[in-house]
Amino acid sequence: MLETLKRWLHFTSLYFGRPRWDTGISPLELVDFLESNPAGRALDVGCGTGTNLVTMAGYGWDVTGVDMIPIAVIKARSKLKMKGQTGKVIWGDVSQPLKLREKFDLILDMGCYHSLSLQDRESYRGNIQRWLQPEGTYLIYAHLPKDLASTHGFRDADLCAFSTFLLLDWRQQNPETRSDGSLGRPSVWMKFHRAKDD
Fold first, then answer.
1. What is the pLDDT of residues 176-188, one digit of tens each?
2. Are 54 and 80 in contact (CB under 8 A)?
3. Average per-residue pLDDT for the chain
4. What single DSSP character describes residue 170?
């Protein structure tokens, strides 16, 4: 509980400005997916200020975003409205029970999972399993751990845990590219899908 509160305070303070990851541009990995797949229902977990919601809606997707930081939710709703797009943005913690009635064809996570505690990761994965349609896609961007002792980042144990209900389609590992063009910490993009008869 204390760790969750610290995370909430940390991210709240960042969203009163412009967080370094909030570039206002959707990544090529997401755009490539949108250009090669039919539109459906999409969920962005840890949606921040809604950049990717706007992009997905622009490709015809029915979009829902969730974020635990109220100011990010307000900014995301405003961004959708300013761009003339429709969508839902919900205030909530994706590692806790959320009453989402829909199931989604695409779930996107850009940098949410890797900051969760190990306990919160377990409940998060349970949510993903409940929310993702059979044959749906789970697309995730995450930092990798700095060392074996680090709890921040997507670890081999996380891959094993997701693999109990998802199938890995591809994995692309690269250093993070910062807004000034410099290279940051090691990171990974992964695309999973859920089996048809899961």
1. 665 556 557 789 9
2. yes
3. 88
4. E
Q: Which residues contact 124 (CB under 8 A, 6 or more apart)?
A: 45, 94, 95, 113, 116
Instruction: Classify 111 as helix, strand or coil.
Output: coil
Tell me what percent of the chain is helix, strand and coil, each rounded to the nearest 5.
35, 30, 35
Burial of 198: CB neighbours in 10 Å, binned 0-12, 13-18, 19+: middle
DSSP state of 155: -
Cβ 28 vs Cβ 52: under 8 Å = no
The 10s digit of each residue's pLDDT in 136-148 is 999 999 999 887 7
**Residues 6 or more apart from 155 whose CB is under 8 A from it?**
145
Cα 137 from Cα 108, distance rounded (Å) = 8
Going by their DSSP bridges, the two strands 132-143 and 183-193 should be labelled as: antiparallel
